């Protein structure tokens, strides 16, 4: 894409381009998308974030309906077949994730901004159906830091970590497809930059 904006989360106040009321956040695995979203939920409760459905099991501390909707393969099949998902994808070759369509459309119909925190495949699907959305790429400060964050989580097996790192290399190469890049040096700063993008959307 052209006319991209890069936002360093350590340098607030960077101007943002014109945008629609739908903001899509994506980035490589382990970059901290979920953590940024969790900080926004905690510090900015007025910001609405879509809750994705997934077929994977909950990680420690995750709550159904808050972090994800945890559904069976059969229920996910039904949701996809009946058009209830705005986008969905198989992530890391294993589990499926998708965005329930109705809550997003209801939010946008009210003229209020909505934030989707999804993977790269899902972001591409949303671009096909909602090209006027603002697409934000969350980027790690370096490859070494991304590896450190992934291995430091301790929630995946060695095989799973290697699979995620291979996926991350591909995902990092997609940065140019996005309208804005936020560098995730520090999670609260990155969250504030993203909230600024959402709130600027309310201005004329």
TrEMBL record:
<dbReference type="InterPro" id="IPR027417">
    <property type="entry name" value="P-loop_NTPase"/>
</dbReference>
<feature type="binding site">
    <location>
        <begin position="27"/>
        <end position="34"/>
    </location>
    <ligand>
        <name>ATP</name>
    </ligand>
</feature>
<keyword id="KW-0418">Kinase</keyword>
<dbReference type="GO" id="GO:0004385">
    <property type="term" value="F:GMP kinase activity"/>
</dbReference>
<comment type="function">
    <text>Essential for recycling GMP and indirectly, cGMP.</text>
</comment>
<feature type="domain" description="Guanylate kinase-like">
    <location>
        <begin position="20"/>
        <end position="199"/>
    </location>
</feature>
<dbReference type="GO" id="GO:0005524">
    <property type="term" value="F:ATP binding"/>
</dbReference>
<dbReference type="InterPro" id="IPR017665">
    <property type="entry name" value="Guanylate_kinase"/>
</dbReference>
<comment type="similarity">
    <text>Belongs to the guanylate kinase family.</text>
</comment>
<keyword id="KW-0808">Transferase</keyword>
<dbReference type="InterPro" id="IPR008144">
    <property type="entry name" value="Guanylate_kin-like_dom"/>
</dbReference>
<protein>
    <recommendedName>
        <fullName>Guanylate kinase</fullName>
        <ecNumber>2.7.4.8</ecNumber>
    </recommendedName>
</protein>
<keyword id="KW-0963">Cytoplasm</keyword>
<keyword id="KW-0547">Nucleotide-binding</keyword>
<keyword id="KW-0067">ATP-binding</keyword>
<dbReference type="InterPro" id="IPR008145">
    <property type="entry name" value="GK/Ca_channel_bsu"/>
</dbReference>
<dbReference type="GO" id="GO:0005829">
    <property type="term" value="C:cytosol"/>
</dbReference>
<dbReference type="InterPro" id="IPR020590">
    <property type="entry name" value="Guanylate_kinase_CS"/>
</dbReference>
<dbReference type="Pfam" id="PF00625">
    <property type="entry name" value="Guanylate_kin"/>
</dbReference>
């Amino acid at each position: 894409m052209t006319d991209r904006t890069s936002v360093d989360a350590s340098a607030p106040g960077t101007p943002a381009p014109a945008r629609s009321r739908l903001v899509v956040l994506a980035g490589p695995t382990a970059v901290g998308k979920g953590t940024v979203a969790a900080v926004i939920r905690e510090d900015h409760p007025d910001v609405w974030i879509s809750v994705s459905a997934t077929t994977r099991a909950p990680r420690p501390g995750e709550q159904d309906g808050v972090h994800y909707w945890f559904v069976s393969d059969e229920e996910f099949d039904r949701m996809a077949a009946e058009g209830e998902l705005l986008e969905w994808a198989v992530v890391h070759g294993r589990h499926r994730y998708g965005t329930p369509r109705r809550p997003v459309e209801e939010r946008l119909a009210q003229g209020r901004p909505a934030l989707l925190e999804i993977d790269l495949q899902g972001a591409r699907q949303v671009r096909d159906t909602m090209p006027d959305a603002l697409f934000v790429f969350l980027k790690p400060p370096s490859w070494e830091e991304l590896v450190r964050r992934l291995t430091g989580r301790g929630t995946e097996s060695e095989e799973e970590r290697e699979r995620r790192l291979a996926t991350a290399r591909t995902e990092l190469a997609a940065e140019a497809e996005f309208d804005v890049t936020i560098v995730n040096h520090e999670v609260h700063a990155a969250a504030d930059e993203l909230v600024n993008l959402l709130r600027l959307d309310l201005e004329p």
